[in-house]
Write a structure and sequence with these properties.
Strand content: under 5%
Largest sheet: none
Radius of gyration: 19 Å
Order of helices and strands: HHHHHHHH
Structural class: mainly alpha
């Protein structure tokens, strides 16, 4: 079997063949498909969910769901969009299920011992943005992350979310507005 790194160079027909083999129960083919996408899927989930443990759970749930649902995938050429949709849905489920309690690891806290006012301001701005982002619902988070952090084109987001491109544009506009309102609300609460 080829090493995982070699899959990146596969033509799309070879990749589609891997998808078809995986859909027929070939776990080695599925492992190759997942191996080439695991990092990106995790980073996307982490951007949507905001923390590593939830992102790991959502990524794992997405891959398990993909393995179970793969025989129902109609077009192997659309595997990436299909997998992205499953991942976004796993993130949505994770957000809906979580409590509003936010865990903060002590390892993640910034070292403020030598931090000047500029560094403290940056930490404060990042914290405000994080709290404002937490106020958004799962759909708004997902669409903002896919477009602005993952730089996905509108057409890819439409495929991932199972909605028309025009709806993606409208939701992006609405999500930006919601984030702006959340940022204002965070600013007012800090006063």
């Amino acid at each position: 079997m080829e090493p995982l790194a070699a899959v990146d160079a596969l033509p799309s027909s070879a990749e589609a063949d891997l998808v078809r083999r995986a859909a027929q129960g070939d776990s080695a083919a599925f492992a190759v498909l997942v191996g080439t996408r695991a990092d990106r899927a995790f980073r996307t989930a982490q951007a949507i969910l905001g923390n590593e443990p939830d992102a790991r759970d959502a990524t794992q749930e997405a891959f398990v769901a993909a393995w179970r649902q793969l025989p129902r995938l109609r077009d192997a050429e659309h595997f990436d969009a299909w997998l992205r949709r499953i991942l976004v849905n796993a993130c949505r489920t994770q957000i809906r299920a979580r409590h509003r309690v936010r865990e903060i690891s002590l390892d993640e806290l910034p070292d403020r011992s030598g931090a000047g006012p500029v560094a403290a301001d940056r930490v404060s701005e990042t914290d405000v943005l994080g709290r404002a982002f937490d106020r958004l619902d799962a759909d708004k988070r997902a669409i903002l992350v896919l477009h602005y952090l993952r730089h996905e084109p509108v057409a890819n987001i439409a495929n991932a979310m199972g909605i028309p491109s025009g709806t993606v544009k409208w939701r992006l506009h609405a999500a930006r507005g919601a984030l702006e309102r959340a940022l204002r609300a965070e600013g007012e609460e800090r006063r």
